[in-house]
Amino acid sequence: MKIIDINNVEVSDTPHKVDVKKLISYDYASIIHIELKPDEALKLHITPVDVCFYGLEGEGIVEISDETKPIKKDQLIFSPARIRHRLLNKSNKNFRFLVIKTPTPKEETKLL
Predict the structure, then answer these.
(1) Parallel, antiparallel, or unpaired: how do β-strands 19-26 and 29-36 relate?
(2) Where does residue 101 rank: exposed (0-12), middle (13-18), buried (19+ CB within 10 A)?
């Protein structure tokens, strides 16, 4: 058994320049915690694997290809591999969500 306390995970240095904590990564999946403060956003990018976004707290906006949808707590949104996407926080509260990548990428994410 492995227990990961998010409070003990350091913020990763990523090109997005937001609060990203890599919780676990193994061959079949990676799980990442992201917190966007008001008016923060991930940069538009393409991930080489399938990705799911699960809302933990607050509200955000997810853009996948030409679609834009709101996302809030307890909602899961799927983004297929190699499709441009990003998440944004246009609210006045923090937006926290999990990113689940399957399988763990073997190549880099491409920023647009």
Answers:
(1) antiparallel
(2) buried
Across the chain, which has 112 residues, the per-10-residue mean pLDDT values are: 96 95 96 98 97 98 97 97 97 98 94 94
* Cross-strand bridge partners of residue 67: 64
Please tell me the chain's helix, strand, coil percentages from 3-state DSSP, rounded to the nearest 5: 5, 50, 45
- Look at the chain and count its residues: 112
Lookup result for tokens 């006045």: 92
20-39 pLDDT, tens digit per residue, is 999 999 999 999 999 999 99
pLDDT at residue 93, as a whole number:
97
| Residue 10 to residue 20: CA distance in whole angstroms | 8
Q: Phi and psi (nearest 5°) for 94?
A: -65, 150
Which residues lie across from 17 on neighbouring strands? Answer: none
